[in-house]
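target protein:
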Amino acid sequence: MSAVLAALFPSHQIAVAVRTRLVEDGFPTDRVELASRQDPGHADVVPAKDIADKLRLHFRQLFPAEEDAEATEVLCRGILEGRAVIAVHPRGDIETQRAREILEQADPVELRARDLDKQPMERAASPDNQTIIPNVRKILLGPGKP
């Protein structure tokens, strides 16, 4: 899951409401992350000495490219200043569009994205009904008749 949308919100409470909205809309809980001072989320298990380093390493996993270093710092600094981040890992065009809509409706302070255009194997939520396996016309789900 390399595609990610990360939104920085003014408070933990707003981020919790956004997370709830995403899950109610159908996003699996394992693809919606919340990180704040009150609830560091996945960053809490990162092996580092303090919360700043934990957050920095966590966001570096979401935004690993050198050109994304600013995103890592903005998100980390935001949490240290009392804000909260929601990160969504969308699958396919429809989920990407829907996640962006929900995040933007909540008026984030900052919205960062990575690899949204690089989801070639993620067809679960895509308007294109083409098979992702070339030259396959149908897939049998069980034993067929001889």
Q: What stands out?
A: The chain has one domain: 4-114.
